[in-house]
Every structure is written in C-alpha cells, then in structure tokens.
Amino acid sequence: MGNFDQKVNKFIEIFWEQNGYNKVLQGLQNTLMIAIAGLIIGIIIGTIIATVRVLPKYKTLPKVLNAICKVYLSVIRGTPTMVQVLIFNFVIFASIAVN
What we know:
The chain is an all-alpha fold. Helices cover 83% and strands 0% of the residues. The chain has four helices and no strands. The longest helix is centred in the middle third of the chain and has 34 residues, at 21-54. The two termini are 42 Å apart.
C-alpha cells in the first residue's frame, strides 16, 4: 500500500490533466440516451399490448392479436434478461449487421 499516493497522482493526472472526465461524461450521456430510448420503446410496446389485451374478443382479428400478445408475454416473462440480451446481440443484430 506504499504506492497509493502514486496511484492517486496518476488518477489525477489522467482524469483532470489529460481530460479523462470527458470520457466519463460521454459515457454518462450514452447511458442516459440508451435508458431513455428503452423507456420510450417499452412504453409504446406496453401500451400496444395492453390495448390489444383489453379489446373485445368477439371478432377474429382481436383474437389473433391477443394470441400473439400472449405468446410474446410468455416468452419475455419466461426468459432471463441476460438471455434476451444475448439473443438480441448475437442473433438479431448480427443478422442485420449492426456494429
């Protein structure tokens, strides 16, 4: 632990003198943008699914849409979040070549 002062000095040098805080602020900005986009997408999908689920079921189209929503909900609720992230990353995004 004798070199703790050296580590603190190196941190100060990188963070303040070499403008390392800009990378931290850029990461914070990216995180907030992703979180807000996810929130908006989630609200839109949730509203659509909730609307379909409360429609009267006496016609054919609402029955089909309700069945699709039931399958979607059971898949999303039944799989862990990390598995969903891996599927999106390695299957969906890889198939459309998103970097």
